[in-house]
Amino acid sequence: MKKGYVAFVLHGHMPFIRHPEINDALEERWLFEAMSECYIPLIQVFDGILSDKIKFKMTMSITPPLMSMLQDEYLNERYLEYLNKSIELSNKELIRTKNNYQENKVAHFYNDRFKGLLETYEKYNNNLMNAFKKFDKLGCLEIITCSATHALLPLISVNPEAVRAQIATGVESYTKIMGHSPEGIWLPECAYTYSLDSVLKEYGIKYFISESKAVLYASPRPMYGTNAPIAVPNGVCTFGRDMESSYQVWSDFMGYPGDFSYREFYRDIGYELPMDYIKPYINASGIRIDTGFKYYKITGNSEYKEIYNRDEAMQKVWQHASHFSKCRTDQISEISKHMDKPPIITCPYDAELYGHWWFEGPDFINAFIRKSAEDWTSYELTTPSEYLKMNPIVQCSTPNPSSWGENSDYSVWINSSNQWIYRDLHKCEEIMIRLANTYTDPSELQEKALNQAARELMLAESSDWPFIIKNNTTVDYAVRRINSHLNRFKAIYDDITKNNIQAKNLEKIESIDNIFPNINYRIYAKANG
């Protein structure tokens, strides 16, 4: 007998990294790698489970920038080139490794894999949103939204209009693409603060996902901790992250992805093979980058690595999926003894962990869903909205402001390395609000400029840029993105206020930053508050 529920929630997000103005932009590879290693493998998993007539329910946020990029004609043409190049390299690898049985076996795996990726990609007409919309329509995958450009909302709440614009545009973009309004939202970085409640309610959001401390430290204290949702006073609910299931995947020392049989992330032939061989498959400027061809398994904590054994890795996948399922069964069996409603275990993760960082991650999800369908488990897979329909009475409690970042606060996104961002952002937000209140009856050209100004501001607000700066990865790129968007914003502002809008210049910017075709700058007007 089923005693409770598990909500497995994936957060699919990439910053807007579309660069038609740059030849072979390095950052576009981030998207292509995620498509090859995460999104298409997940689609293959869901298709396989459906073809086997196994019922399942999962939740996945697909942020507006990711939705936009997955449907973008330019990026899809670029990805098709990338995929065909990968197949070409896989054919060459069959020849290069022919005298090494173990390596050749891995090369054959990659050859089959990349051909399978292309087959799935073409099946959905080179547009992965076609697949995700299908799963959403079938009811097995509940897709939820996010703020427009993944802005860390508490850090821009000094200007409430900026928060409203982010949420309104995120909801509008989702509705236009999916054909229906979203039930839930993934607050960027699970970052919550009190002022978000009214805006979420205003735009029809029924629930959001939060960090465990948002619920555990809520006031009054929730009766069931994170094992049941809580509702803010206006009725919007939140589901807190379950930490036991989180540690089993995320933990550095006990998480499944660190198993020695899994594929080693940090060894790639893009860095190891002679330049004359690998040059056609790395960056056009000759910068060595990942190709996706990795021949080693983690092996251990030393530099010594053994050749990857796919069969061995799949055995571990099923062991780990069985362990994860048993832990949820034991957890729910124990918790349900002390509750007067069925518990729900909320398991949120970055989607890109599954396939990109943890190569076998999509296989784990496949095995977990199949294990969950077996009779011995004490739970069913569900979505937060389904749970609320079955259990509409929810304890009222005010969540604690928090995020799922380090220290459960906002310090990853505002600290000594990146705090400079916010002075300029807030100044531009104030300007955008003033523009929206001033230009109530613009000309057609003025309206286009005002809408583009709103796009540039939102793109500058992305939480990805301060995160990258804090973690000291592609810092130059993040700084350049913030400054380029704000400089474009300021230039457009000057042109608008001086009545000197250059249509050609505006069209050029629109062609590069073409996100949110239906954006309406009026959302920044105070009259909406």
TrEMBL record:
Pfam families the record matches: BE_C, Glyco_hydro_57
Gene3D superfamilies (UniProt xref): Families 57/38 glycoside transferase, middle domain, Glycoside hydrolase 38, N terminal domain
Residues annotated as domain Glycoside hydrolase family 57 N-terminal: 7-327
Keywords for this protein: Carbohydrate metabolism, Hydrolase
Keyword Hydrolase annotated: yes
InterPro entries xrefs: 57_glycoside_trans_central, BE_C, Branching_enz_MT3115-like, Glyco_hydro/deAcase_b/a-brl, Glyco_hydro_38_N_sf, Glyco_hydro_57/38_cen_sf, Glyco_hydro_57_N
GO MF terms held by the record: hydrolase activity
Coiled-coil ranges from the UniProt annotation: none
All residue ranges annotated as the 1,4-alpha-glucan branching enzyme C-terminal domain in the record: 425-524
Family: Belongs to the glycosyl hydrolase 57 family.
Protein name (Swiss-Prot/TrEMBL): Glycoside hydrolase family 57 protein
